[in-house]
Amino acid sequence: MIDLAHCTTVKSADLKSRKRNSFEISTPETTYLLYADTEKEKDDWIGVVGKAIVRCSSTYYANRPNEIQDTDEQNDEDDDDIYENDGDNEYFND
Q1: Which residues are CB-contacts of 18 (< 8 A; sequence separation ≥ 6)?
Q2: Do residues 36 and 23 make contact, with C-beta atoms less than 8 angstroms apart?
Q3: In terms of DSSP H, where are the helices of 1-94?
């Protein structure tokens, strides 16, 4: 199991692994290479893991000061509107 709270990046790894549909999840100590069955599945994994990494980071909550951070009653609303591919975000696959 990979603890996403310690992850720093998730990105495509097709060139690095020389295999299609591969992606990597990195922590300060280890880089994990993973493989999906399809390109869409790979992109879906990268997106979901990237969002989870952001949500686990302290900066995610620091940028949302007006919201209650109650872990017992988590809100399941989708936060897709806060994710934009601004060219500098390493969690988006170009």
Answers
A1: none
A2: yes
A3: 14-17, 39-56, 58-62
- CA–CA dist 29, 67 (Å, integer): 33
Phi/psi at 31 (5° precision) = -115, 125
The per-residue pLDDT for range 20-60, each reduced to its tens digit, is 999 999 999 999 999 999 999 999 999 999 999 988 877 65
pLDDT digit string (tens) for 54-94? 888 776 566 666 655 554 444 555 555 545 555 555 555 54
Tell me the C-alpha distance between 60 and 87, whole Å: 19
The DSSP bridge partners found for residue 92 are: none
Strands (E), the chain: 9-12, 22-26, 31-35
Number of residues written out for the chain:
94
